Amino acid sequence: xxxxxxxxxxxxxxxxxRGSTLTELFENAARGMFCVIAGEGYKAQGSxxxxxxxxxxxxxxxxxxxxxxxxxxxxxxxxxxxxxxDFRILSLNDSGLKAEASGINIDLYxxxxxxxxxxxxxxxxxxxxxxxxxxxxxxxxx
Amino acid sequence: xxxxxxxxxxxxxxxxxxxxxxxxxxxxxxxxxxASESLLPGILNDKALEQVAxxxxxxxxxxxxxxxxxxxxxxxxxxGGVAATDPDNxxxxxxxxxxxxxxxxxRLVRSDLMxxxxxxxxxxxxxxxxxxxxxxxxxxxxxxASAKDxxxxxxxxxxxxxxxxxxxxxxxxxxxDKGAIEGADPSKVSKRAYERGKDQSGTLGSGNHFLExxxxxxxxxxxxxxxxxxxxxxVTMMIHxxxxxxxxxxxxxxxxxxVGCLDxxxxxxxxxxxxxxxxxxxxxxxxxGGMKCAANxxxxxxxxxxxxxxxxxxxxxxxxxSALGLRLVYDVAHNIAKMEKHKVEGKEKxxxxxxxxxxxxxxxxxxxxxxxxxxxxxxxxxPGDMGTVxxxxxxxxxxxxxxxxxxxxxxxxxxxxxxxxxxxxxxQIDKELFNKSGxxxxxxxxxxxxxxxxxxxxxxxxxVDVVHGAGLSVKVARMRPLGVIKG
Lengths: 142, 487
What we know:
The complex is a heterodimer of chains A (142) and B (487).
Chain A (H helix, E strand, L loop, with lengths): L3 E4 L5 E7 L2 H17 L9 E9 L5 H19 L1 E12 L2 E10 L13 E2 L7 E3 L2 E9 L1
Antiparallel strand pairs in A: 1-2, 2-8, 3-5, 4-5, 6-8, 7-8
Helix pairs in contact in A: 1-2
Chain B lengths: L9 E2 L4 E4 L11 E4 L5 H6 L2 H8 L9 E11 L1 E9 L6 E2 L11 E10 H4 L3 H11 L14 H10 L1 H6 L5 H5 L17 H7 L12 E10 L2 H7 L5 E8 L2 H21 L12 E2 L3 H36 L10 E6 L1 E10 L2 E10 L2 E2 L18 E4 L7 E6 L1 H6 L3 E2 L9 H7 L5 H9 L2 E4 L2 H6 L8 H10 L3 E14 L1
Parallel strand pairs in B: 3-4, 18-19
Antiparallel strand pairs in B: 1-2, 2-3, 4-5, 5-13, 6-10, 7-9, 7-11, 8-9, 8-19, 12-13, 14-17, 15-16, 16-19
Helix pairs in contact in B: 4-11, 5-11, 8-10, 10-11
């Protein structure tokens, strides 16, 4: 079972994400998003940075928490120029999540490998559960 | 995963196809697609038609969920979608119906230069533009705006740039809404959005954004071309950019908050990306106030980009830009929602018109047109891909009758970015285009070149023939690319 794979979309970019648990799904979605940004196999070099991320939602909806989680990482990436490559969800329930993410301080804007993600969309986003665990498809506006 | 359209289209005539309202329970109006027989298979292959049907669920939608011939799969709305809603009838506004790049748009600058004047200096000009106009992702511009400036940009749009000396008053005359839409409310812009917009004024951005030097190789309507100051053999320049990080953040903020409105206002839509709120609700008004700030920022951005470009021409040709005749023909928005007056069943109504990858196309005589274009109609700028051609059209009466004053916005993609990269594997698109057509291309990344290769797009000629044939806008001039700068 691949943690994530790129899917075809006419105008934008999508990833199909899987995880044996919801926590793993959220971590793999973050990995998938940074793979869209810098390509598969990219190894960032530089000083390591740790971030704590907390999302609060008072709605019983994991899709909204997932979009907020990815949007938050994208926001920090844009603002602080951190390429995240390690994600640990500490707690996840229907009121939000707590997580730690670590990455490398690097200005990818200047590199020629970089794909800009404008936003994480809700387009047909649905977390599905089957015998193997959880899966969903996320479309990014690029 | 998004579904493909599995219904049957009703052919109305050579250019019009209908998705019956019965296709999906919950559709409030039918779908109407503008396309030719030859464009249709590509459209059916895509998932865009399902999105046209989904947009028909929006409360208060009037007449049709419309799709232009450059339609392709987007998120929520299709790209090339138009939807008007009636606020008096529960009509909603949807940030997804505008998109993340709020007021992404195009401007066309004409010149007095002929192709022969340009040829010996083309390479110098393209290199100099590439070095002097900030492009690329997240690039920061030389044109700096303080936090106070930013608020003024939100409120006054391109006028801010003109006051700073980045252009002249006449430029505003030839910009949609004179470069500033009324009703912008900076208090509806989040701190994050402010932050992202801070140093990106006068920057091109990446992806499909570009700056292009062109030559007019065909005139279809002498009279209208003359009114727009265009003639055969003339050098023109096109700028395609939007509201950059500011617009993305404003859209993102409001999509998230409007997902919550779906329950609050008991709105049922098949895709959460169509999140919306009544135009006349606190949430709807807040989004409009914020969206207008981004729209005004985008007009300022294109005004600043034009200023930088004029400066480069001045250096390369050693003449002032006014002596070179570098006058703005027009600037159009193609991702925007506007409150506009339109006739519905004989009555004039104030509607909220969403244009997601569609261009306003007001006909001759429309009150919002500059005096010089009153007889010709509004110039509609249609960029093609970097290897084919672009067009200037003029708004026509059919657009007011059928599409709430709208027409297409470009060629429209037909290949995904990854398919385009695969198709271009091992090829050097810039060299190919130079050897084949003499087009000089400068891009920040090779990936952008492959993603934006001509085969990733539909044939813009076919797209334009449909809107011309359907009477939404008429062909005026065609431009061939000479030099392209990509972000």
